């Protein structure tokens, strides 16, 4: 099975002067779940090349078994350093797509025409689309074949307003994932803040936060079995 992972290329946290990017654990955990299951993984990003890592996700207290494994895995590091440009990706080459979060996607992937085109192609052909934490931002402008927002009437999860508030970025982010999913007609669900919570609706898999990333990847795999 061929699986596409899409990471952000955006590294600026609004006008705070701080850096952002993708969240390490949300990439590493799904990467190994999928790779260990025998998947061939291609990684893409809007700009291609090395995507920016959110420095907070590299802090000692944010490390997990998967991130420690990644730090010892030179092959995975090389794959990550040479992501394919999103515009050069053909959706037809893949069985599923998975979007790790971090705050970066709120700025670039949410607004990317290339990302929108990909997601709509996967959805139209009933292939799995997964997104975790802030990555459900990618559904901001996507539509289904009926012309309605892709998440309309569907069960979805994503970073909660209360989690955004807890990290002090409610007034920094361009929009709140929870509010956007609800505004697009999504049947938004959530579990406890910072606990794993994953929702599957048809071929759409969404996870609430970093703790949900491994479980979201496992649910994506089940849809491919």
Layout of secondary structure:
Blueprint: E1 2-6, H1 24-36, E2 40-45, H2 65-71, H3 74-81, E3 84-85, E4 96-99, H4 113-124, E5 129-132, E6 155-156, H5 161-166, H6 177-183, E7 187-188, E8 198-201, E9 204-207, H7 213-224
Parallel strand pairs: 1-2, 1-4, 2-3, 4-5, 5-9, 6-7
Antiparallel strand pairs: 8-9
Helix pairs in contact: 1-2, 1-7
What descriptors fit this protein?
225 residues, 15% strand, Rossmann fold, alpha/beta
What does this structure look like?
- The protein has 225 residues and is of the alpha/beta class.
- The protein has one domain (2-224): Class I glutamine amidotransferase (GATase) domain (Rossmann fold).
- The protein contains seven helices and nine strands.
- α4 links the parallel β4 and β5 (129-132).
- The longest helix is centred in the N-terminal third of the chain and has 13 residues, at 24-36.
- The radius of gyration is 16 Å and the shape is globular.
- The protein starts with a strand and ends with a helix.
- The model has no long low-confidence stretch (mean pLDDT 97).
Specify the structural class.
alpha/beta
What letter string, H or E per element, gives the SSE order? EHEHHEEHEEHHEEEH
Principal-axis shape: globular
- Please give the radius of gyration in angstroms: 16 Å
State the helical fraction: 25-40%
Strand order of the largest sheet: 3-2-1-4-5-9-8
- The share of residues in extended strands comes to 5-15%
Which stretches of 5+ consecutive residues score pLDDT under 50?
none
CATH class: Alpha Beta
Kindly give the count of domains: 1
Nearest-integer average pLDDT: 97
DSSP helix count? 7
N- and C-termini, Cα separation: 10 Å
DSSP E strands, number: 9
- CATH architecture level-2 label: 3-Layer(aba) Sandwich
What fold name stands as the CATH topology? Rossmann fold
CATH superfamily placement: Class I glutamine amidotransferase (GATase) domain
Biggest sheet architecture: 7 strands, mixed
